[in-house]
Design a protein that fits this description.
The protein is α+β, with helices and mostly antiparallel strands. About 25% of the residues lie in helices and about 30% in strands.
Length: about 220
């Protein structure tokens, strides 16, 4: 079920880069942006990007950088090749940069966070809350034991005060709750395998139909 995770563990990977995390998610049926990863020694000569449409986002990739935003490691709204080359050049100057992940920009949506961790006391735990910077500012999150079914996932969502935004507000349509619950259940199953120590999908953009994981972190378990 998680062949890519098992392959990474077999290679002795101690840190999973974002593009590798998204390959795992894609294997599990999650929607992620179309993108291409360019290693640092190849990035000065950006290859022709096939089947990726502007505008683009470029992000620094490194096993040593915990927060890309704290090092100004993200460039948004790149409209052409010139802007892309400038963005890549700037990102490569960031300390510890290993490569660049270039992706299509997703449409704006309601942002949430879905995560999981192996807790020393409780074992596999799933977390849900408002995404992006909201989770850092308001800490409006809820936790539950994993694995779980969709009824438990719905309970988890409703425990978050900000979940009212998901029902639609100020003329905005409600988001696709069914796909959100499916994502929470999948994360609960992933963290329960014993192969993953921590998974952090933040943000996940929710739409009236569908959802997409914009950023992802995965830590592997070697216990």
């Amino acid at each position: 079920m998680m062949q890519k995770v098992e392959d990474l563990i077999a290679k002795g990977k101690t840190a999973v880069l974002e593009h590798e995390a998204k390959e795992v998610l894609r294997e599990m049926g999650f929607s992620v942006p179309k993108g291409v990863y360019i290693e640092k020694d190849m990035a000065e000569q950006i290859p022709a990007i096939v089947d990726i449409s502007y505008p683009l986002v470029a992000k620094v990739s490194s096993s040593k950088i915990i927060s890309k935003s704290e090092v100004n490691g993200v460039r948004l709204g790149l409209k052409n090749g010139h802007e892309l080359k400038e963005a890549v050049s700037g990102l490569l100057n960031i300390q510890d940069a290993e490569g660049i992940l270039i992706e299509e920009m997703a449409a704006p949506g309601i942002e949430v966070i879905v995560g999981g961790i192996i807790d020393d006391q409780f074992g596999p735990v799933v977390m849900f809350g408002l995404g992006g910077i909201s989770v850092e500012l308001f800490r409006d999150v809820a936790f539950a034991l994993a694995p779980m079914g969709k009824e438990d996932a719905l309970w988890l969502v409703r425990e978050v005060k900000g979940s009212k935004l998901l029902k639609g507000y100020r003329g905005r349509p409600p988001v696709d709750i069914a796909i959100l619950l499916e994502m929470i259940v999948k994360v609960s199953e992933m963290i329960s395998t014993g192969l993953i120590q921590e998974i952090d999908l933040n943000p996940v953009a929710l739409y009236p139909e569908g959802a997409i994981v914009l950023d992802a972190k995965i830590s592997l378990h070697y216990g």
